[in-house]
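Lab meeting, item 3. Inverse folding demo.
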């Protein structure tokens, strides 16, 4: 049996087991990637970005006041989540709004930067979908391990796949030369 044949058999085993072990991660990543690609177009995934009165930050209320107004409105609409702290504030001067995102439950409040009017209170599913997509929903360590494993595994699948495609061609060429000699 030739070296090429032995190599192909070995690579076929590697390719199969790497493929099987990566299949679940690839499936999760692919499905969540599809959802994330549609996040700006499907309101359930991410609430549409509203528009405020002014794009000029000089017309805006202070960020601390916007945060207080958003927190008050959120607690009024969801008193059971009164202890939900603000995670971050996404300021969108080009839209005239700020998006206030909360730590628990994937909630966001969109507030007009100038008037302080609450424009939207809604769930923001895109955030948990993104965390599932990259593995950080479990932990940052899990994300690091799975994303590196997925990347390295795909490189191995690519290399073994190329060899499994090219190897038989090489083997047939070798057999033809041998039979003509």
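The presenter then showed the designed sequence:
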């Amino acid at each position: 049996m030739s070296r090429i044949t032995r190599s192909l058999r070995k690579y076929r085993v590697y390719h199969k087991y790497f493929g099987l072990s990566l299949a679940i991660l690839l499936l999760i990543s692919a499905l969540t990637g599809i959802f994330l690609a549609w996040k700006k177009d499907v309101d359930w995934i991410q609430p549409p970005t509203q528009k405020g009165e002014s794009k000029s930050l000089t017309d805006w209320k202070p960020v601390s006041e916007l945060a207080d107004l958003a927190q008050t409105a959120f607690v009024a609409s969801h008193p059971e989540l009164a202890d939900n702290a603000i995670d971050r504030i996404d300021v969108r001067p080009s839209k005239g709004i700020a998006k206030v995102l909360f730590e628990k439950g994937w909630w966001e409040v969109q507030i007009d930067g100038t008037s302080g009017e609450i424009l939207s209170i809604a769930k923001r599913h895109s955030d948990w979908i993104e965390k599932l997509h990259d593995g950080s929903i479990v932990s940052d360590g899990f994300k690091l391990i799975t994303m590196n494993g997925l990347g390295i595994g795909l490189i191995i699948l690519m290399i073994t796949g190329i060899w499994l495609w090219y190897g038989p061609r090489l083997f047939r060429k070798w057999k033809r030369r041998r039979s003509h000699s």
